[in-house]
Amino acid sequence: MNEHRLGRFYWLKASWIYVICFLLMILSIMPFWILIVNATRSTDQIQQGFSLIPSRFLEYNYTVLTNRGFDIWRGFINSFTISASATFMALYFSALTAYGLVIYDFKAKKYIFALIAFILMIPAQISMIGFYRMMLNMNLTDNYIPLIFPAVATPATVFFIRQYLLSSFPKDLVSAARIDGAKEIQIFHTIALPVMKPALATMGIFAFVGSWNNFLMPLMLISDEKKYTLPMLVQLLKADIYRTEFGGIYLGIAMTILPLLIVYLIFSRYIIAGVALGGLKE
User: Fold this and answer.
1) Is 107 helix (H, G, I), strand (E, B) or coil?
2) Are the CB atoms for 169 and 102 separated by under 8 Å?
3) Where does residue 159 rank: exposed (0-12), middle (13-18), buried (19+ CB within 10 A)?
């Protein structure tokens, strides 16, 4: 009898957990669904009220969007060029730095890590004006270089990968590779990087999303409209004198977040693997 009651209690507890998780999932998906639905509705329908059912004005909204000068493909190319390059720079050099902090022993090791942790607490907005002045003096405004190369120094990514290596990377592999005659850079590329895949995928998503959604810094540095990123093009969808086409604006926003959803769906399995592997420490 007690076993029956205990089993019933665990069944009820599990049921409540699933119900709560389902409600949280609905709350997470709902904003994206509303955005997609509004992208298929007309301005009049949007102004009339809330709806969860798609409408038939998607083609019309796309026509309105393109007639307003919203060059979605140029924006995709510009944003992807910046985001992919910045993400690669951030992941590779952060992984190299974190690997050095974990594998090698030198006097300033603790101080360097302390400096990285300290930089994490400094808001990036503090350095924006100084960074803009420096780029202006170097004649690098209206250029993608200031939006890509600063990603070489990404303290948050270094911190995360270092913690991951401490919990999941067996240092004996490095010693064994050195005995076999492998060079240090070869060990990093062939042994360390494959082990880092879950951590790199996790931070790669954050780096790509952060660079893709970056609006303020490109707005300060880029003045040529042909070089505008997608967030900058979206802010150009302003109201005209007589009518605001909300359907076209919603469609433009939906098209800007579509690549982010694709990137997350591709690499989310590495995040799960990273959590599972990171929980095991020898």
Assistant:
1) coil
2) yes
3) buried
